[in-house]
């Protein structure tokens, strides 16, 4: 009996000790209660988790106000940044100076700097045109953006060397004045990168591993791959045209080609905004195939574990003169082209990863007239396989956004909205310490555009920053809207400075984001970019740093591609 009393006494002491530990833990860590409760929902559906989170959020609904909407046709060219945003990486001197737009794989750093090295050596030789000294200046501008400058006439260099001839054809089709000076500065090839296992799978199923086998495997849902935005990426544009050509070699824009592309696109999980985004997705094991250029492939250790399958036309880096050059500048350009084709410079190019895979002759398909322009339009209209797109914009209106950040956010949304198609459904949420549903989700017709414009104009910065509360409410709105459109494609855009100091945390919301599968595109203003990138990476979306002079152009490009 005495022993039983001692045992009970000991158990009583232990129980009291455990209770005290729990109470101390809860007092010292207010969020521990939230963690425990959230864990209890781990086996329930997403709606249950959202309800749990929303119960802890103060949510109000604003009274929408209509504002005047600009009805002029949107032009991405209008938002091209001033050219000084892309400073010269080589600055020529002398009596005659040529300025050349050069794509980043030739005008970057390290092994991406071949044409920089060539320009410096050429300039050091003091090339003469008659009695005048000639030199070249190099400006690092991506192929697609360089084409935009030339087509718009906003800034015209003397010469332009994109990754492939597709951009020259595009410029000509839209009235730009460019002339091919040389078809090949250095050799390069576009390719599909797949794991060795995937390559073996393709060879077993289709007898070979090539573009045809990859397309068939994607359509049959046997492999998962991604590609880059064909509105701005040389390799992405080549891939789009090659896919259309596979379905109809006689006419890239036929109904047959369109139907084939749609069946292919239905099994593409996402189109990357940048090559880096796509590479990171492949590195994480979420993609079995991706596209890239051979020069980057051989220079990147991370990519060495993949097999390279060439496709499409070759990327031989042609060089174009722009406009009508003077005799002096034409002679200087001829001299520079000849210098770059000398054995010394071509040997350097090979050391930097160019001039490989010369045995690949490349495909050929019609890119004359407006074929490329129409193919890009076809892609934008059919990239979602006829699915509705539902998007919610989540705008940070905390006190830290006051001033220029909020002004830039408003400008981003108002200007970017011009690139959202009428058949998309759009909603708007703002948040500070609390969350406000500014505009419920609805088709983006003229009426909804007016409400959206009015709500954006009225946004004011005040209070704390509960970013993940805003994200949770945005996801809830998207899932509710999807009940009416079960096949819709959902996406969320978070515009913020990335500094969260109130409400739910990443720890609690990230499982919900992941389970929902909704991509979250983040746009940072004076932001903690790393925090925003972490959110975007959960479901393969992109992140834009708005602390740059070309943010409006970048955001319009993003909306143009995704919406």
From TrEMBL:
This is VWA domain-containing protein. CDD domains: vWFA (cd00198). Pfam families: SBP_bac_11 (PF13531), VWA (PF00092). SMART domains: VWA. PANTHER family: CALCIUM-ACTIVATED CHLORIDE CHANNEL REGULATOR, ZINC FINGER (C3HC4-TYPE RING FINGER) FAMILY PROTEIN.
């Amino acid at each position: 009996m005495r022993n039983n009393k001692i045992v009970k006494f000991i158990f009583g002491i232990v129980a009291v000790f455990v209770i005290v530990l729990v109470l101390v833990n809860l007092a010292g860590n207010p969020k521990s209660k939230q963690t425990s409760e959230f864990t209890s929902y781990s086996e329930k559906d997403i709606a249950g988790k959202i309800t749990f989170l929303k119960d802890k959020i103060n949510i109000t609904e604003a009274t929408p106000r209509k504002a005047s909407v600009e009805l002029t046709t949107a032009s991405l060219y209008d938002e091209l940044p001033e050219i000084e945003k892309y400073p010269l990486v080589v600055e020529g001197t002398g009596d005659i100076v040529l300025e050349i737009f050069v794509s980043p794989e030739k005008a970057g750093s390290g092994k991406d700097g071949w044409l920089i090295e060539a320009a410096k050596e050429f300039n050091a030789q003091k090339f003469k045109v008659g009695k005048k000294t000639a030199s070249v200046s190099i400006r690092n501008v991506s192929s697609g953006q360089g084409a935009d400058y030339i087509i718009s006439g906003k800034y015209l260099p003397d010469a332009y060397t994109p990754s492939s001839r597709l951009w020259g054809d595009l410029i000509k089709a839209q009235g730009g004045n460019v002339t091919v000076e040389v078809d090949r500065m250095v050799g390069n090839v576009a390719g599909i990168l797949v794991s060795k296992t995937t390559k073996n799978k393709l060879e077993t199923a289709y007898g070979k591993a090539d573009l045809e086998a990859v397309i068939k495997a994607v359509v049959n849902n046997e492999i998962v791959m991604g590609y880059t935005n064909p509105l701005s990426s040389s390799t992405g544009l080549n891939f789009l045209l090659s896919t259309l050509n596979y379905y109809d070699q006689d006419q890239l824009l036929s109904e047959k080609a369109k139907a084939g592309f749609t069946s292919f696109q239905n099994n593409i999980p996402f189109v990357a905004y940048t090559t880096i985004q796509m590479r990171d997705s492949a590195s994480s094991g979420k993609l079995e195939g991706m596209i890239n250029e051979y020069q980057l492939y051989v220079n990147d250790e991370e990519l060495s574990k993949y097999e390279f399958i060439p496709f499409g036309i070759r990327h031989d880096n042609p060089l174009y003169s722009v406009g009508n050059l003077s005799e002096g500048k034409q002679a200087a350009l001829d001299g520079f082209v000849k210098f770059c084709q000398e054995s010394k410079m071509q040997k350097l190019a090979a050391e930097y990863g160019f001039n490989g895979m010369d045995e690949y002759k490349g495909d050929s398909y019609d890119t004359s007239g407006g074929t490329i322009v129409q193919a890009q339009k076809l892609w934008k209209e059919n990239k979602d396989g006829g699915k509705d797109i539902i998007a919610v914009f989540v705008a940070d209106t905390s006190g830290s956004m006051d001033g220029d950040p909020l002004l830039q956010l408003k400008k981003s949304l108002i200007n970017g909205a011009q690139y959202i198609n009428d058949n998309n459904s759009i909603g708007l949420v703002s948040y500070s310490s609390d969350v406000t549903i500014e505009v419920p989700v609805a088709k983006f017709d003229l009426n909804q555009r007016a409400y959206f414009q009015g709500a954006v104009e009225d946004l004011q910065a005040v209070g704390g920053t509960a970013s993940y509360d805003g994200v949770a409410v945005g996801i809830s709105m998207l899932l509710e809207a999807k009940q009416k459109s079960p096949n819709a494609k959902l996406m969320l855009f978070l515009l913020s400075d990335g500094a969260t100091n109130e409400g739910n945390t990443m720890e609690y919301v990230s499982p919900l984001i992941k389970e929902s599968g909704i991509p979250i595109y983040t746009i940072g203003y004076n932001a903690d970019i790393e925090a925003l990138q972490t959110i975007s990476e959960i479901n393969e979306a992109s992140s834009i740093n708005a602390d740059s002079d070309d943010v409006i152009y970048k955001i319009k490009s993003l909306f143009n591609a995704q919406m």
